[in-house]
Every structure is written in C-alpha cells, then in structure tokens.
Specification:
With about 140 residues, this protein is an alpha/beta fold. The chain has helices spanning about 30-40, 60-65, 90-100, 120-140; strands at about 20-25, 50, 80-85, 110.
Length: about 140
C-alpha cells in the first residue's frame, strides 16, 4: 500500500495518526452494538465509532474520519468487514485486538489510519487491505 510496509506496534502510550475514532465497515447493526459494548467493557468507550455503509465506498477515508456522528446502517453492508483505527494509543490498539478475539465476532481486517490511507477512497482501501490479508494468510504455515 505504501513504501513503508507493515510496522510492528509496541505497547506504548504513543498515539497513532489521526482523530481518535474507529471506522467500522461491513457491520450489521447488531454487531455494531457488540463492538460498542466491547469498547465499553474494555474501558475505551471514549473512542468515537463511525460506521460506513455502502454509500461511503467512494468517499476518502480522511473525509469519513472527519464525520462527527456514527451512521448506523439498518442492514448489513456488502463491503468487507474491517476496522480502521486512528488517534488511539499503541497500548489501546493491543487492548482492542485482544478483547475482540474474546467477543465471538467474525474475523475481519484491521488497519490504522495513515497519511497515505486517508487519501484513498474507502472501497479501494478495503480492496487493498483484503489482498494484503490474503497474502499474509498464504505466508503463514499450516496448522496441524
């Protein structure tokens, strides 16, 4: 996606790029509530949630992160499931990932907002993230 590739995230209090928000993609209304509950239970209810519906695919990720409110979709969008995070600390990112694994919610793609990704249209970014995720899965050794 860019020249930097993947970077390991530590457990520090350093803030990630962008506003303190999480953009959810491909979530049903029920799963939006489950994600919100997960954040609350993890002590992270002060992170603003944004929800992308199918109409957001042609908007830039940066424009979506500037929206002030959560747009709860009544139906499950046709887009891939993803969570794009911005402005949280590295430690909070680890808390979210670890807590998510315990929720029983379906697997998804995770990403952080970057100066590069905020200029991409959401649909293009989701497509690229899906390709990267598939490539990473192919590189992992098979589990016996």
């Amino acid at each position: 996606m860019n020249d930097q590739g993947f970077q390991k995230v530590s457990q520090s209090e350093n803030r990630l790029y962008g506003p303190r928000k999480i953009l959810l993609c491909g979530y049903s209304q029920k799963n939006q509530l489950r994600f919100q509950t997960m954040l609350r239970d993890a002590g992270l209810s002060n992170i603003e949630l944004l929800v992308a519906d199918d109409t957001a695919l042609h908007q830039t990720v940066g424009a979506l992160f500037k929206q002030p409110v959560c747009r709860a979709s009544q139906k499950e969008p046709a887009m891939p499931r993803a969570a794009i995070m911005g402005g949280i600390t590295e430690k909070e990112l680890h808390t979210i990932l670890n807590t998510y694994c315990q929720t029983g919610l379906p697997g998804q793609v995770w990403a952080t907002l970057t100066p590069t990704s905020e200029n991409w249209q959401l649909g293009e970014l989701l497509s690229e993230l899906k390709k990267e995720n598939e490539a990473l899965r192919r590189q992992q050794p098979a589990k016996n």
